[in-house]
Design brief:
20% of the residues lie in helices and 36% in strands. It has eleven helices and 40 strands. Strand 21 and strand 22 form a beta hairpin.
Length: 644
């Protein structure tokens, strides 16, 4: 009996790796325990909630939206406000976007396989007839139709290459697609001129710099437009009604992007807003993030991100007037004018609502709700609205963060979960997030979501503060957050876990190494564990873009920096339990990054739960996988935070 007891105790004490591997569908669990049935049932409603995202208007005034009724997001049609969602695509792979073909009851949608991001595009009618537009074995994106719907242009790249080519096809003859411009770098079409003779091209160099060109389809000449002697981030470019100018977003001379009209011939830039007087622009607090034009190209709808929440204004390009669109408080997820120009569709997500679609009538100024998405069995009263705080970091800057707090009573200090976003040129927003809400309700944790330096939404200076050799300054921002937590009377600084995905996964690993004595555990989802191997192995179409942000591993000085800051170089400091998730088909952060980290951690005796999804790429797109992986996260977090 004594031997049996000793054996039982020994099995309990074994590290998680000793529990072996098991498979659940396409998920492979290595060292992770099974999830209790009661927990699975508790979190299912969070992932049963579904949203509606506006994609485009059809010529008959109905809408295309993206929503999920099964395991993956698909395209649906809604014919009127409050109408049924009629499903149009039926695939095991997600379909997250669609564009209507002008003048036709058809639409274009892209689809990849297993999250590999080598998107193929298809033209589909409402009754299901479809034809493939793009060439097999290529990656395709940024589709733009001519005004008459007869022509479509897009960008195409082949495996291992970093240069995108510009392709063109007649919609009636997709197989006749042809190369119209041999691209350099990440080039993509933005718009086709009203007369159909020119294409506006952009070349994305980094989050701080984009170059513009106007391609003449007759001569093949691509003429530079806009600034060429300084870094300017241009986006959302559209030709003016006469084809002589561009309406776009530009941060030229400003910290944030503003809506402007750019004269193609002279390069002169006219601001649409924030003007105090001739030639003087009042610096705005928040920048514009999206722009779309009415079909007659005389009205611009501009979306601004104000501390994470969306605002939309309409600009009269001829008369100079401006009006705000009255919106519910939320995060903008889609926007577009109807074919007759009378309505603007807008989709929004909120912290307590999964996301829905509205239309705004420009004449009556009335906002009409088109969809009412379900919360999947959750009660809105269960969901919490985050508060926005700012905390001081090592160089006295103020770091913004959203804080989600449980609403019920607590018998003591609450555990804390810090979630760090990817990008790094991204921004955490107060949109619907079932994961955070489940952490609040099922764990009783306070969830803190910081936008550390390098995040977008706060100006180009803030965006560049973590570039290259300054990479670990963003890690110090989390160290400062740990300091702030320790000063809060309701937070338990001895029970803190950190979670991050992609670049946030790197951050999670870095915090686990640099501040191991101040955390209870960490979750790394498809994170970068070694900067050199990451840059060498990420897909070719991304490599130079990532070098612009992170630094070039071919430069001996930068390679030496990478040696100091790569988490695998200081893995010996990571003693607290770790959970690692990876998609097997990830083209951005290859599976090798996670597997090398898991191997090193286990070799030194650190407890690791490893979850591999064989049918996912960079993220978790399938509902079935989301439920299982998120449940495992909660089991892990409860264990390391000491929550029953």
């Amino acid at each position: 009996m004594r031997k049996a007891l000793i054996l039982a105790l020994a099995l309990i004490a074994l590290p998680a790796a000793a529990q072996g591997k098991r498979e659940v569908g396409a998920l492979v669990y290595d060292g992770a325990p099974e999830t209790p049935a009661a927990l699975k049932a508790a979190i299912a409603p969070y992932y049963n909630a579904r949203s509606a995202v506006f994609e485009d208007w059809l010529p008959d005034g109905s809408m295309l939206i993206a929503t999920r009724f099964g395991d993956t997001q698909q395209i649906h049609r809604v014919q009127r406000p409050g109408g049924d969602r009629t499903q149009l695509t039926f695939f095991s792979e997600p379909v997250n976007g669609a564009q209507a073909v002008p003048g036709a009851q058809r639409f274009l949608y892209p689809r990849d396989v297993g999250g590999a991001e080598y998107y193929q595009a298809f033209l589909r009618s409402l009754d299901g007839d479809e034809v493939q537009l793009t060439a097999p074995g290529t990656r395709n994106e940024s589709f733009v139709f001519s005004k008459d719907g007869k022509t479509v242009v897009w960008s195409q790249v082949t495996p291992g290459k970093g240069d995108y080519d510009i392709m063109l096809a007649e919609v009636a003859n997709p197989q006749g697609r042809r190369l119209v411009h041999k691209g350099t770098g990440a080039m993509s079409p933005e718009d086709i001129s009203p007369d159909g003779g020119k294409v506006l091209l952009s070349r994305y160099i980094s989050a701080a710099e984009t170059r513009l060109f106007v391609l003449d389809l007759k001569t093949g000449a691509a003429t530079p437009v806009g600034a060429t002697d300084r870094k300017v981030a241009y986006s959302a470019g559209k030709f003016t009604a006469d084809g002589q100018g561009l309406v776009l977003l530009s941060d030229d001379g400003n910290e944030v992007a503003l809506p402007v009209v750019l004269d193609i011939a002279s390069g002169a830039q006219r601001h649409l807003s924030f003007v105090d007087g001739p030639g003087r622009v009042r610096p705005p607090l928040w920048g514009a993030e999206a722009l779309t034009l009415s079909p007659d190209r005389l009205t611009a709808a501009v979306a601004t991100n104000e501390a994470g929440y969306g605002r939309v204004d309409l600009y009269d390009l001829a008369g100079g007037g401006k009006q705000a669109v009255p919106l519910p408080k939320g995060v903008l997820t889609g926007m577009g004018f109807s074919d007759d120009g009378r309505s603007l569709a807008i989709s929004l997500s909120t912290s307590t609502g999964a996301g829905d679609v509205w239309s705004y009538d420009l004449a009556s100024k009335q906002l009409t709700r088109w969809t009412n998405s379900e919360l999947g069995g959750l009660q809105a009263s269960q969901l919490v609205e985050p508060s926005l705080i700012h905390y001081a970091t090592f160089d006295k800057r103020q770091i913004p963060a959203f804080v989600y707090r449980p609403t019920g009573p607590s018998t003591g200090k609450r555990p804390v979960i810090i979630q760090i976003h990817g990008g790094p040129e991204a921004q955490e927003l107060p949109s619907f997030n079932p994961r955070r809400q489940s952490w609040v309700n099922e764990i009783g944790a306070v969830v803190i979501v910081p936008n550390v330096r390098g995040s977008s939404g706060y100006g180009k200076t803030y965006l560049s503060l973590d570039n290259a050799e300054k990479r670990e300054d963003s890690v110090k921002d989390i160290g400062a957050l740990l300091d702030w937590i320790a000063t809060q009377p309701d937070l338990d600084a001895s029970r803190v876990a950190v979670v991050g995905q992609s670049y946030g996964g790197y951050m999670s690993l870095a915090v686990a190494g640099r501040y191991n004595d101040r955390i209870s555990g960490a979750i790394d989802l498809y994170g970068i564990s070694d900067w050199v191997t990451f840059l060498e192995n990420t897909e070719g179409y991304r490599r130079d873009l990532r070098r612009a942000e992170y630094g070039d591993e071919r430069d001996p000085k930068m390679r030496e920096v990478f040696g100091r800051i790569s988490p695998r170089g200081y893995v010996s400091a990571m003693k607290k339990p770790m959970m690692v998730y990876q998609g097997a088909n990830d083209p951005r952060v290859p599976m090798s990054e996670s597997e090398a980290m898991v191997a090193q951690l286990r070799a030194q005796g650190t407890e690791v739960w490893y979850v591999l999804a064989r049918d996912e790429g960079h993220g978790i797109a399938r509902k079935s996988n989301q439920e299982q992986v998120r449940a495992t996260e909660i089991v892990f977090l409860k264990k390391v935070l000491g929550v029953e």
